[in-house]
Amino acid sequence: MLLSVLGQVQMAMSVVSGPAHTAATGEPVADSAVVSTAPGVSMRWWLGVAFAAIAALTALSVAEVFKHRVDVAFRERGQALAVGQSVGAAQSVSHALIAGNLSHAAALITQRHRLSVFVFSRAGRTTSSR
After folding, report:
1. How many angstroms separate the CA atoms of 17 and 24, rounded?
2. pLDDT tens per residue across all 130 residues of the chain
3. How many CB atoms are closer than 10 A to CB 102?
4. What are the two backbone dihedrals, phi and then psi, of residue 12, each rounded to the nearest 5 degrees?
5. Pairing between strand 2-3 and 118-120?
6. How far is the C-alpha of 36 from the C-alpha of 42, rounded, in Å?
7. Residue 33: its pLDDT value, please?
8. Cβ–Cβ under 8 Å, residues 39 and 19
9. In angstroms, rounded to a whole number, what is the distance separating the alpha carbons of residues 44 and 85?
10. Alpha-carbon dihedral of residues 58, 59, 60, 65, nearest 10 degrees?
11. How far is CA 103 from the centre of its chain?
12. Rounded distance between C-alpha atoms, residue 59 and residue 70, angstroms
């Protein structure tokens, strides 16, 4: 290191970071440690974008898996409710047949079980459609 009269520091170093530097002789020397990238895109930006893309892809895949599980659970629960309502309505129809008031009970069964109940005569005609 040499100090000039005006107080400026002049450095003569053989290794300086950067795309090209000068050795002690003053001639440019190629730097073998330089990574060439697109102009204006630093590692900080593309690495951040890469991590953000991975996080977004992970979040989307997890959301898709949970959406599928919820959909399957709703379908199974809906089927169980439909079967339960049908069995309950069938038992109510059975009790109404034993009591002999099926035509009158059909309206109550329809309201209670939230199902449509159709009562047919032995001839196959509809006697009650609720």
Report:
1. 14
2. 444 444 444 444 444 444 455 555 556 555 566 656 567 778 889 999 999 999 999 999 999 999 999 999 999 999 998 898 889 888 988 888 888 888 788 888 888 888 888 878 788 887 765 5
3. 19
4. -120, 95
5. unpaired
6. 10
7. 60
8. no
9. 61
10. 90
11. 51
12. 16
Amino acid at 1: M
Quick one: tokens of 12? Answer: 């003569």
pLDDT at 28: 58
Q: How far apart are CA 34 and CA 103, in angstroms?
A: 91
Q: Which residues pair with 28 in a beta bridge?
A: 22
Q: Provide the pLDDT for residue 19.
A: 47
Q: Which two tokens stand for residue 109?
A: 């069964």
Closest by alpha carbon to 29, among 17, 38, 42? 17
